[in-house]
Amino acid sequence: MSDVRRARAALSRLVEPGDKAVHALVGEVGPVEAVERICAGRGTYARFGARVRTLDTGRDLATAAKVGARLVVPGDDEWPERLDDLPTPPFCLWVRGPVPLGEALGRSVAVVGARIASSYGEQLAAELAAGLATRGWTVVSGAAFGIDAAAHRGALAVDGATVAMLASGVDRVYPAAHSRLLARIAETGAVVSEVAPGCAPMKSRFLQRNRLIAAATRGTVVVEAGLRSGSRNTVTHASELARPVGAVPGPVTSMSSAGCHQEIRDGRATLVTSADEVIDLVGDLGQDACEPARGPVAAGDALLPRDAAVLEALPYRGGLDLERVVALTTLPPLIVRAALTRLELEGLAETDGTTWRKRRSRTAHAVVQ
Amino acid sequence: MSDVRRARAALSRLVEPGDKAVHALVGEVGPVEAVERICAGRGTYARFGARVRTLDTGRDLATAAKVGARLVVPGDDEWPERLDDLPTPPFCLWVRGPVPLGEALGRSVAVVGARIASSYGEQLAAELAAGLATRGWTVVSGAAFGIDAAAHRGALAVDGATVAMLASGVDRVYPAAHSRLLARIAETGAVVSEVAPGCAPMKSRFLQRNRLIAAATRGTVVVEAGLRSGSRNTVTHASELARPVGAVPGPVTSMSSAGCHQEIRDGRATLVTSADEVIDLVGDLGQDACEPARGPVAAGDALLPRDAAVLEALPYRGGLDLERVVALTTLPPLIVRAALTRLELEGLAETDGTTWRKRRSRTAHAVVQ
């Protein structure tokens, strides 16, 4: 293993994600020299002393190997280039799972939300994720309870690609109840972390993990979020990175949707109701654009207003002459005559030569779409 | 009664709402001369012949008087000036009810929606209307089944002002099942129409009635609407008049909310979840603005990120010295020391002089708001 890879692995153990000072140092002198200075422990780097004393990158690499995790560093084929949009991109990523990470994240959407979710939210998250996965999009989430887990499961259910970004080392199972879920994700997709194997999940690491989820994906969808849900932190990161954000609405009586509604009101998120609308939001213009939602189209829907008024005046039985239709609609006779002709051509009206009536037809009431 | 009033009453019987040609004529020669020309029936005005033959304005005025309705024309004190924003304002209004119409509509919101509404939608419409009415806003709707009726009822339930705009004459009860509802509105608010007493409700009149609702109010809120709901027509009118439009979200699994979601996605409507948010949307800036929705605030919420990281590192029992906190957080000692001082001052941490720990306090977990 190259010195650079080893140094980056060491940094992921020594330094908290998002540490601007060390990031600037790495930018200045490179990772190998940066690790040397941190380990020397002089001046501002004394704060890393306790971690330097227990640093054992060989052990971390061995732990990774034991759980089938590999080290991915900037410059590797599978490095997700989108992460370089971050002010403080990860020093490296630890990755468990068969998918080439960069490729999988190329067309990816973050599906996130509250841990305390309603069954409405969980079902939607699963459906949305399944829909996205079916259309070839990778579903990225945080493997937490609630919306996160539902999203991963939705993608897995259709044999889709899904990536879990953890706040702890990739060898750790958090929450413990998701042991089987994480194993399944690692079998077919990827379990990813920027902190070294063995590292514990901590609040600050969850917040930094959220920035990874936002940065690694083309856009983020919040399915359910209370006003104080951590998933709104992911939205903040996505907004800062100018990634599109979608939010799924729900009943206004449900506090689980209040955060989503607030994001939409604040203009930080676009209201989305389906996988197609999510892809419309995050996908490439043209290639991925979806049709706006429409109700069923009935024959006669596209009529000019005056033609519609004339049609409305006609009876199904008997018939009305031109003068009578003029009287009912108060439209000029020329307009009524032209409207009757158009309605006849479209099969909506019929005439005996003197009077007109509505034409009963199967298509007139059929739902075209 | 002046000739002008009588002429406007006649126009409301002879001419369909929104007839641009007659509107232009009235603008040119005034209502009296316009009625004379229409009654002469020459040229383009022949189309009104059938109605001219049965015109009896005295009878219409008598019918109005019988149901306690009055004629309101432009220039009257209670003429709602906002209607003059319309390209084709009504020739007059027929009004049943004790409220001075212009004043009641001064602070008014249209609350509209689907006739086929869910119980979620109806309950919300009633709550929203009650909230608006309680805050002194007049609730305007169309007296239809579903959302409209729920909105009127919500306002009536808190003795608030509510105005029903009809597509038929004010003496007609449509739908028939709303006889009691319309009577209650007429007792305390106002039942209004721009077509003469006796006129039947027709599809084209419903569409024109929707333009009145949009024009007469400061803004429109759609509570529930399918993709093809007529209430979206009201939204179109409101948008064209540059009146603010709000839409209430709902479950994406409910087709009754699909039209609302689409309006929000199209940027024609702002997502609203409460009466306060509606008033924020349609009210005067400053005077009526509402606070954004917030979750409960816990002590420590406003902490600097580094203070929060330090607080997270502290135990409840025992204590950690400065060096240990530095080791756990990898923050520079100066920053850790400053953070500990701030946390102590805020009552979130305590110290024995050498070590620090979290302070258990009632306020630390109390919900402040």
UniProtKB/TrEMBL annotation, chains A, B:
Regions crossing the membrane: none
GO process annotations (BP): DNA-mediated transformation
Gene3D superfamilies: 3.40.50.450
Stored InterPro entries: DprA, DrpA_SLOG
Family: Belongs to the DprA/Smf family.
NCBIfam families linked: dprA
Protein name as annotated: DNA protecting protein DprA
